[in-house]
Amino acid sequence: MVSAGNALQGLAPGVTVTTQTGAPGGDAGNIRIRGINSFGGSDSNPLVIIDGVAGNINDVDANMIESISVLKDAASSAIYGSRAASGVILVTTKRAKGDQLSAQYRMYSGWQMATAIPKVTDGLTYMKVFNDASMNDNGTKIYSDDAINAFTQAYNKDPNNYDWQKAILQGSGFLQDHYLSLSAKSGIISVAPSFGYLQQDGIIKNTDFSRFTFRNNMDITPNDQWNIRMDLSFVNKDRKQIADEGTIWNYLGRMPTNIPIYYGNNYSDGWVKINPVGFIENGGNRKQNNVELIGNLNVSYKPAEWLTLKGLVAPRYLTTNIHLFRKSVPTYYEDGTEAGAANTFTELTESARRQFYGTYQFQANAKKDFSKHSFELLAGASRETYNEKILSGYRRDFLYDNYEVLDAGADNETKDNAGAEYEWLLVSAFGRLNYNYNQKYLFEANVRYDGTSRFIGKNRWAFFPSFSAGWVVSRENFFEGLRGTVSQLKFRGSWGKLGNQNISSSYYPFSEPLSLGGTSMNGVVYQTIQQLIMSNPNLKWEETTMSGVGVDLSLWRKLDVSFDIYDKKTDGILLRLNTSQLTGLEAPVQNAATVSNKGWEIGAQYNEKWGDFKMNIGFNLSDVKNEIIDMKGQSSGTILRQQVGSSVNSIYGFIADGLYQNQAEIDSGPTQFGTLKPGDIRYKDIAGAFDANGNPIGDGKITDADRTIIGSTVPRYTYGFNMGFSWKGFRLSGLIQGVGKADGYLDSHYVIPAVNSSAVKPWQLDYWTPENTDAQFPRVSLTSTNNTQNSTMWMRSAAYMRLKNVQIGYELPKSFIENTFLQSMYIYLNGQNLLTFTKFYEGYDPEINYNAASSDGVALGGGNYYPQVKTISFGIDVKF
Questions:
Q1: Nearest 5°: phi and psi at 569?
Q2: What's the domain of life for this entry (predicted)?
Q3: Are the C-beta atoms of 327 and 360 separated by less than 8 Å?
Q4: Domain boundaries, the chain
Q5: Phi, then psi, of 426 in degrees rounded to 5
Q6: CA 823 → CA 195, 264, 819, 876, 880, distances in Å?
């Protein structure tokens, strides 16, 4: 497990973790707690608190984590501030234990491979399918018998020269992780330094990732009144990618299999001068270095037994440097003449980003008991600052394409640079009151008053209250006779309102940037500055209101069960509402949309022991119904749709109603797109008139009005099942994880046969012909506009069940190591993502959201993502 955030996958009810890619250094999980709150640039990520300071869970070595807790309801999250509207993840790192010097060394190494690859057929099959497509279109063949014979002879001489996938997947996939920690105490000082090193090679060449982490947690306890924590964390990450990595995965399952990789020692012209093997070997690189330094000074003072004062200062400094160097990769024809290159010049972009977070906090905590009454009052204030500077430079036309520095770029006409600076400030005051009577009746109230620089005027400040109550029924006198069976029974409820200031990718959403341009008058170019988008100074906090009830049950002190029902509604989500064109400006963003998440969660854990045999079994299941309930009469999106009554990012398109079998069916059906022929997709005509029973009878034509919501990309159900068994020194553990009732969408050459000259997948061969009328896919065509429409034909269930992790290990007996310096030694074999059960497209991983546009421009519905990976590794854990 490279990214620590993935540790939550399948283990906590109501928490959905999805990994978009298995790329080295890029496999950080996307975490959602109780659904998706918003859309259109709003932030649905939970707040991560690491030892009291906001941070990134994936920048923490998983070996350094002592515990992870997830806060899901508004009352428990409220004290953590304005970024807690999407839930809070509390991470506690390891601190020194005991009075003696101790050490621990952990390591594992293994290999990674793709969970799914879109396998392709050979070149002869490719040529046959495209001949069929051309015959369907115009009655001619693309490939003559002579061309097929010539290919067959060339293929028989060197089959490997046509195996693009084998040539692309040449990376070792080797992975290794090392971790060393110490724990020591001398007098009033305890220290726990730890070191981690991870190195990961990609499944394609010239891709890798390395991470070095150092953390030292220090505790100073001069006396019973004072406690000082001085923590320091340093992380250095280096990630290397192919310059145009998206291109590689685009062509992994697309490259025509009748085209060779090389002509002699030269790269072939591939497809439109793109040779993905050439891109990997000689197309440049993208190198990213991240350095993070975090300090945390936490001072606690108890002037009285009932009062504790705490102060915290935590600076966090990050730098990100990106080096993107694209090289021109020349390709050649079979006769040796140069065919050209997809990139016609070399270019280099260097960018540097510096970020500084400052966290300052003070709080007072008073606690007092009066007989059976217990009171606790907390009051505090915090100040969070952020400053970011960005600087970039660009050059092109390098005389020496192995000298990757800006000054080596020869073209002075195109050189460029840019820079920017951003900052924000968040100031908060907060308080919390806890009361319980005899540990039976529990009550908590939280209040926050938050101010942010992201808004202006009266909208800068907002008040957020929350309340919770609990009843521990098992402590009542009337429950006495049941305690042997039911050791705990607790009912609880909560209500709260939380705010979110991160409603836009802009740090100043109330103000739209001015646009620089130019105009020519009398042969002279004058620079212009103009406003193109209307600003909205009335923007305010996005508010999430959540209520819920739950029950905790413990039976026989072996089985623990929890059940929750919740209702979460987020108001004030940003939209661009239509405005009058008389303004001459594009419409501003407004707090206009509302999203609802309603659901339930259940979690259970059973522990048992028979002599030397121990067993623990856990299960969790959650259901969330995500729905947009207000968009002020608007809707947006093509494949992914935001529309009232549907979930966020729903799939939008036509409803496919089988395939036309003959011309008579076409003639009697509605008009559709292009020239229809038998074997084409028939769409439901749902716009227009309705019959007496309210069923649509259509208007005789298929238009955009017949598009509708056809699926949801938000999983309805998320579940996990974990188990662990041990007997003497042997241990066996496993985790099964999955989602239910979710849809995925792929289109274009990824799934549609004979589109864009793409390689043919084996499962695409079930296409309609007069001899195969009960086919899965429509007739093959090079020109059909009808069959490539967004529709249910190309949508599949993205539900899956995955064997996420399985580990078998053995701990050496104490008698074996008693005369050594070792305290314990555990060796194990581990597997991750070993098996996946799904009805999604073969060769594509259902966990990846193929509908999402990536940062490097991957189109919606595209499958050009680095695949998920499965890992087999061997490890050792030694304590001494």
A1: -130, 130
A2: Bacteria
A3: no
A4: 656-702
A5: -130, 120
A6: 20, 60, 10, 14, 5
Residue 199 CA to residue 388 CA, distance in Å, equals 29
Name every residue whose Cβ is closer than 8 Å to that of residue 128 and which is 6 or more positions away in sequence.
Answer: none
The confidence score (pLDDT) of residue 851 equals 67
pLDDT in tens, 463-478: 999 999 999 999 999 9
Tens of pLDDT along 716-748? 999 999 999 999 999 999 999 999 999 999 988
Q: Give the per-residue pLDDT at 819.
A: 79
pTM of the predicted model as reported, rounded to 2 decimal places = 0.90
Residues β-bridged to residue 103:
182
Which amino acid is residue 101, in one-letter code? Answer: L
Q: Tell me the three-class secondary structure of 296-351, residue by residue.
A: EEEEEEEEECCEEEEEEEEEEEEEEEEEEEECCCCEECCCCCEEECCCCCCEEEEE
Q: How far apart are CA 714 and CA 648, in angstroms?
A: 7
Indicate left, alpha or beta for 66 from its phi (over 0: left) and psi (-120 to 50: alpha): alpha
The b-or-e profile of 370-397 (16+ CB within 10 A means b, else e) is: eeeebebebebebebbbebeeebbbbbb
Which has the closest alpha carbon to 115: 43, 14, 212, 21? 21
Averaged over 667-689, what is the pLDDT? 93
Q: Summarize pLDDT for 606-657 with one digit per residue, the tens.
A: 999 999 999 999 999 999 999 999 999 888 888 899 999 999 999 999 999 9
Cα separation of 461 and 451, whole Å? 4
Instruction: State which H helix or E strand residue 547 sits in.
Output: strand 542-555
**Distance in angstroms (rounded) separating the CA atoms of residues 55 and 69:** 15
Quick: pLDDT tens for 561-586: 999 999 999 998 888 887 777 777 88
For residue 213, give the nearest of 199, 202, 227 by alpha carbon: 199
Q: Are 199 and 182 in contact (CB under 8 A)?
A: no
The pLDDT, as a whole number, for residue 852 is: 55
Q: Which of 840-852 are b and which e, b meaning 16 or more Cβ less than 10 Å from the residue's Cβ?
A: bbebbbbbbbbbb
Helix (H) or strand (E) holding 159: none
Q: Phi/psi at 754 (nearest 5 deg)?
A: 65, 30
**Structure confidence at residue 858 (pLDDT):** 37
Sign of CA dihedral 702, 708, 713, 716: negative
Higher pLDDT, 877 or 6: 877
The reported pLDDT for the residue numbered 853 is 45
Neighbours of 792 (CB within 10 A): 20
- Give Cβ neighbours of residue 145 (< 8 Å, ≥ 6 apart): none
Q: Which of 23-27, 536-540, 609-613 has the highest mean pLDDT?
A: 609-613
CA-nearest of 286, 392, 394, 393 to 345 is 394
Distance between CA atoms of residues 779 and 755, nearest Å: 11
Three-state DSSP class for 38?
coil
C-alpha to C-alpha distances, 78 to 144, 432, 434, 497, 569, nearest whole angstrom: 71, 9, 14, 8, 15
The tokens of 19 are what? 């990994």
DSSP 1-23: --SGGGGGTTTSTTEEEE-S---
From the CB of residue 183, how many other CB atoms can be counted at a distance below 10 Å?
Answer: 21
Under the phi-then-psi rule, with left for phi > 0, alpha for psi from -120 to 50, and beta for the rest, what region is 167? alpha
> What DSSP string describes 369-383?
EETTEEEEEEEEEEE
> What span, in angstroms and rounded, lies between the C-alpha atoms of 58 and 677?
53
